[in-house]
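User: Can you help me understand a structure? I only have the sequence.
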Amino acid sequence: MTVKRILLAASATALMSIPAWALPGLAPANEGKGHSPSTTPNNANNPGSSHRSPEGTENTGGKGNQSNGNQRNGNQGKGNEGKGNQGKPSHPGSSHKCKPHKVAYVASGKLVSQTLTKNADGSYSGKVTVEVKRTNHHAASDQGTTKTYKPENVHVTFGLADTNGDGSVGLDDLKAGDRVKLIGKITALAKKCSQSGFTATTTIREIVFNAP
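Assistant: Let's start by predicting it. Here is the structure, written out as C-alpha coordinates:
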Protein backbone atom coordinates (compact mmCIF):
# COMPACT_ATOMS: atom_id res chain seq x y z
CA MET A 1 0.00 0.00 0.00
CA THR A 2 2.82 2.39 0.82
CA VAL A 3 4.44 1.78 -2.56
CA LYS A 4 1.17 2.43 -4.45
CA ARG A 5 0.64 5.70 -2.61
CA ILE A 6 4.13 6.81 -3.43
CA LEU A 7 3.55 6.00 -7.16
CA LEU A 8 0.21 7.79 -7.25
CA ALA A 9 1.71 10.86 -5.60
CA ALA A 10 4.57 10.87 -8.07
CA SER A 11 2.17 10.58 -11.01
CA ALA A 12 0.04 13.46 -9.75
CA THR A 13 3.14 15.60 -9.27
CA ALA A 14 4.28 14.82 -12.84
CA LEU A 15 0.90 15.68 -14.33
CA MET A 16 0.78 19.01 -12.53
CA SER A 17 4.18 19.93 -13.89
CA ILE A 18 3.14 19.36 -17.61
CA PRO A 19 1.84 22.55 -19.43
CA ALA A 20 -1.80 22.53 -20.36
CA TRP A 21 -1.11 22.95 -24.10
CA ALA A 22 0.88 19.70 -24.12
CA LEU A 23 -2.03 17.62 -22.91
CA PRO A 24 -3.87 15.70 -25.64
CA GLY A 25 -7.53 16.62 -26.48
CA LEU A 26 -7.26 20.11 -24.98
CA ALA A 27 -7.42 23.10 -27.33
CA PRO A 28 -6.79 26.75 -26.52
CA ALA A 29 -9.92 28.58 -25.43
CA ASN A 30 -9.54 31.25 -28.16
CA GLU A 31 -8.75 28.90 -31.04
CA GLY A 32 -10.06 30.20 -34.40
CA LYS A 33 -10.63 33.74 -33.15
CA GLY A 34 -7.30 35.14 -34.11
CA HIS A 35 -8.37 36.04 -37.68
CA SER A 36 -12.11 36.71 -37.27
CA PRO A 37 -13.43 39.59 -39.40
CA SER A 38 -13.80 42.93 -37.73
CA THR A 39 -17.36 44.02 -37.05
CA THR A 40 -16.31 47.63 -36.73
CA PRO A 41 -17.25 49.69 -39.84
CA ASN A 42 -14.49 51.48 -41.76
CA ASN A 43 -16.16 54.80 -41.08
CA ALA A 44 -17.90 54.90 -37.73
CA ASN A 45 -19.57 58.20 -38.61
CA ASN A 46 -20.96 56.92 -41.93
CA PRO A 47 -21.56 53.13 -41.73
CA GLY A 48 -21.46 51.32 -45.05
CA SER A 49 -19.95 54.25 -46.96
CA SER A 50 -17.00 52.14 -48.06
CA HIS A 51 -19.31 50.07 -50.30
CA ARG A 52 -21.44 52.99 -51.56
CA SER A 53 -21.49 54.04 -55.21
CA PRO A 54 -19.71 57.32 -55.96
CA GLU A 55 -23.02 58.78 -57.08
CA GLY A 56 -24.68 57.96 -53.81
CA THR A 57 -28.43 57.96 -53.73
CA GLU A 58 -28.63 59.27 -57.28
CA ASN A 59 -28.53 55.66 -58.51
CA THR A 60 -31.67 54.71 -56.59
CA GLY A 61 -34.31 55.47 -59.20
CA GLY A 62 -32.43 58.51 -60.49
CA LYS A 63 -30.37 58.73 -63.65
CA GLY A 64 -30.63 55.08 -64.60
CA ASN A 65 -34.43 54.96 -64.63
CA GLN A 66 -34.66 58.34 -66.31
CA SER A 67 -32.44 57.08 -69.11
CA ASN A 68 -34.59 53.99 -69.58
CA GLY A 69 -37.71 56.17 -69.67
CA ASN A 70 -36.17 58.38 -72.34
CA GLN A 71 -35.29 55.33 -74.40
CA ARG A 72 -38.84 54.04 -74.17
CA ASN A 73 -40.24 57.41 -75.17
CA GLY A 74 -37.82 57.49 -78.06
CA ASN A 75 -38.93 54.07 -79.26
CA GLN A 76 -42.57 55.10 -79.05
CA GLY A 77 -41.83 58.16 -81.12
CA LYS A 78 -40.15 56.06 -83.79
CA GLY A 79 -43.03 53.61 -83.79
CA ASN A 80 -45.50 56.38 -84.58
CA GLU A 81 -43.22 58.08 -87.07
CA GLY A 82 -44.70 58.28 -90.51
CA LYS A 83 -48.29 57.63 -89.43
CA GLY A 84 -49.42 61.22 -89.60
CA ASN A 85 -50.35 60.98 -93.28
CA GLN A 86 -52.26 57.74 -92.94
CA GLY A 87 -55.85 59.00 -93.04
CA LYS A 88 -58.97 57.91 -94.81
CA PRO A 89 -58.49 57.77 -98.56
CA SER A 90 -60.20 60.42 -100.59
CA HIS A 91 -62.72 59.58 -103.27
CA PRO A 92 -61.15 60.48 -106.60
CA GLY A 93 -63.26 60.59 -109.71
CA SER A 94 -61.94 57.19 -110.80
CA SER A 95 -63.03 55.46 -107.57
CA HIS A 96 -65.88 52.98 -107.86
CA LYS A 97 -67.60 54.88 -105.04
CA CYS A 98 -67.84 57.92 -107.31
CA LYS A 99 -69.62 56.18 -110.15
CA PRO A 100 -73.32 56.95 -110.63
CA HIS A 101 -75.71 54.59 -108.87
CA LYS A 102 -79.49 54.35 -108.89
CA VAL A 103 -81.67 55.37 -105.96
CA ALA A 104 -85.43 55.56 -105.45
CA TYR A 105 -87.34 58.40 -107.08
CA VAL A 106 -90.89 59.35 -106.03
CA ALA A 107 -92.75 62.50 -107.10
CA SER A 108 -96.40 63.48 -107.02
CA GLY A 109 -98.50 66.46 -108.05
CA LYS A 110 -101.17 67.65 -110.50
CA LEU A 111 -101.47 66.52 -114.09
CA VAL A 112 -100.85 69.30 -116.59
CA SER A 113 -100.97 67.25 -119.80
CA GLN A 114 -100.12 63.83 -121.21
CA THR A 115 -99.52 62.16 -124.60
CA LEU A 116 -99.25 58.55 -123.54
CA THR A 117 -100.03 55.66 -125.85
CA LYS A 118 -100.71 52.05 -124.98
CA ASN A 119 -98.23 49.40 -126.15
CA ALA A 120 -99.07 45.90 -127.34
CA ASP A 121 -97.88 44.37 -124.07
CA GLY A 122 -100.21 46.61 -122.02
CA SER A 123 -97.49 49.08 -120.94
CA TYR A 124 -97.48 52.81 -121.83
CA SER A 125 -94.97 55.18 -123.40
CA GLY A 126 -95.02 58.92 -124.20
CA LYS A 127 -94.86 62.16 -122.23
CA VAL A 128 -96.45 63.35 -118.97
CA THR A 129 -96.18 66.91 -117.69
CA VAL A 130 -96.72 67.29 -113.96
CA GLU A 131 -96.80 70.19 -111.52
CA VAL A 132 -94.64 68.53 -108.81
CA LYS A 133 -95.86 69.16 -105.26
CA ARG A 134 -94.20 66.49 -103.16
CA THR A 135 -91.12 64.25 -103.54
CA ASN A 136 -88.91 61.89 -101.62
CA HIS A 137 -85.37 62.89 -100.62
CA HIS A 138 -83.71 61.92 -103.89
CA ALA A 139 -86.26 63.79 -106.02
CA ALA A 140 -86.19 66.95 -103.91
CA SER A 141 -84.66 69.03 -106.72
CA ASP A 142 -87.89 68.61 -108.74
CA GLN A 143 -90.23 69.76 -105.98
CA GLY A 144 -92.05 72.99 -106.82
CA THR A 145 -91.34 72.70 -110.55
CA THR A 146 -93.37 71.73 -113.58
CA LYS A 147 -91.58 68.77 -115.06
CA THR A 148 -92.12 66.78 -118.25
CA TYR A 149 -91.35 63.07 -117.95
CA LYS A 150 -90.76 60.73 -120.91
CA PRO A 151 -91.64 57.28 -119.62
CA GLU A 152 -91.16 54.17 -121.76
CA ASN A 153 -92.90 50.85 -121.23
CA VAL A 154 -94.25 51.85 -117.82
CA HIS A 155 -97.07 50.30 -115.83
CA VAL A 156 -100.05 52.67 -115.42
CA THR A 157 -102.78 52.45 -112.79
CA PHE A 158 -106.02 54.38 -113.28
CA GLY A 159 -107.61 55.12 -109.92
CA LEU A 160 -110.46 57.27 -111.25
CA ALA A 161 -113.96 57.00 -112.62
CA ASP A 162 -115.14 56.28 -116.18
CA THR A 163 -115.77 59.91 -116.99
CA ASN A 164 -116.68 59.43 -120.68
CA GLY A 165 -119.02 56.52 -119.97
CA ASP A 166 -117.52 54.08 -122.51
CA GLY A 167 -117.46 51.25 -119.99
CA SER A 168 -113.72 51.29 -119.30
CA VAL A 169 -111.23 53.53 -117.56
CA GLY A 170 -108.19 54.61 -119.53
CA LEU A 171 -106.27 57.48 -121.04
CA ASP A 172 -109.45 59.06 -122.42
CA ASP A 173 -110.72 59.58 -118.90
CA LEU A 174 -107.73 61.70 -117.82
CA LYS A 175 -108.01 65.48 -117.50
CA ALA A 176 -105.84 68.31 -116.21
CA GLY A 177 -105.84 68.61 -112.44
CA ASP A 178 -105.95 64.84 -111.80
CA ARG A 179 -103.51 63.62 -109.20
CA VAL A 180 -100.37 61.88 -110.48
CA LYS A 181 -97.76 59.82 -108.70
CA LEU A 182 -94.57 58.76 -110.48
CA ILE A 183 -92.30 56.01 -109.14
CA GLY A 184 -88.88 55.08 -110.52
CA LYS A 185 -85.12 55.48 -110.16
CA ILE A 186 -82.69 58.39 -110.43
CA THR A 187 -78.89 58.27 -110.77
CA ALA A 188 -76.83 59.88 -108.00
CA LEU A 189 -73.26 60.38 -106.79
CA ALA A 190 -71.92 60.22 -103.26
CA LYS A 191 -71.75 63.61 -101.53
CA LYS A 192 -67.93 63.51 -101.24
CA CYS A 193 -67.52 63.00 -104.98
CA SER A 194 -67.15 65.81 -107.48
CA GLN A 195 -70.50 66.73 -109.04
CA SER A 196 -68.84 68.57 -111.91
CA GLY A 197 -70.23 67.45 -115.28
CA PHE A 198 -72.73 65.03 -113.69
CA THR A 199 -76.39 65.11 -114.76
CA ALA A 200 -78.93 62.94 -112.98
CA THR A 201 -81.08 60.66 -115.12
CA THR A 202 -84.62 59.80 -114.06
CA THR A 203 -86.29 56.57 -115.17
CA ILE A 204 -90.01 56.15 -114.43
CA ARG A 205 -91.33 52.61 -114.00
CA GLU A 206 -94.86 53.22 -112.73
CA ILE A 207 -97.50 55.97 -112.89
CA VAL A 208 -100.62 56.15 -110.75
CA PHE A 209 -103.52 58.46 -111.73
CA ASN A 210 -106.21 59.42 -109.26
CA ALA A 211 -109.15 61.82 -109.25
CA PRO A 212 -108.54 65.30 -107.75
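Now, to help you interpret it: The two ends are 166 Å apart (CA to CA). Residues 56-62 have pLDDT under 50 and may be disordered. Let me know which part you'd like to focus on.
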